[in-house]
Write a structure and sequence with these properties.
By secondary structure, this protein is of the alpha/beta class. It contains twelve helices and seven strands. The chain has a seven-stranded mixed beta sheet with strand order 3-2-1-4-5-7-6, sandwiched between helices. Strand 1 (51-55), helix 3 (61-68) and strand 2 form a beta-alpha-beta unit.
Amino acid sequence: MSINTDRNFDDITSKFAKNIYGTTKGKIREVIIWQDIETILHDFPSSQKLTILDAGGGQGQIACKLAKLGHDVTICDISQQMLEIAKIEAQANGVDLNYRHCAVQDLSHDLSASFDIVICHAVLEWVVDGPDFLSSLKTLLKPNGVLSLMFYNYHGLLFRTVTLANFGYVQAGLNKRKKKTLSPNYPRNPDDVYHWLGELNFNIINKTGIRVFHDYLVDKQKQQTRFDELLELEKQFCRQEPYINLARYIHVVAKCH
């Protein structure tokens, strides 16, 4: 996969920060994801210093939290501007990260080390070839290593689009017209992702829905005014069906054989 075929956020870095991280949806994502990551960490000996890759790690929030716990963290991103923000975030948190400016698919050529944990959040929906991308991630994992994979859910997009009565977009196959937006290019059908992981001999050990209710609130003001209550409901139902399958994102934890 050429580095030029995947989405680079250099052109909309500030918009990305404002529209994703600085919102209630970003806060929910951060809380729920961190719960899952803590569960992953608990499966390793507490004294073990883990090697962790945050592939497509953006502005470094998760990478910095993991480095603060004493782990050896590498962050990779195709966007140089994102990495610059990650460096500022690391300095503010008093931690050291290892930085790689390249596409995730090129990392296996760039790095000789393999990792105990590979984190890859909100990247799969931006790459053309999903199976090839996941195969690249597997090459970076140690035997019995753990993959933390979050992807944009096709079912959640379809459900949200219909509730907005945007029927023309549905009839167009959910193909977006403007390329430089925060709406992912390749929303993923969960069944496809699970199949691809199975083909690569991953064992899925956990699935979590990210934002199972938030985006569907009719009164958007309640996302802020009733946020604490909403967050508690998100935490309560995010690991149950049918809510997982309707979430805007799905987080999968899988172990490499």
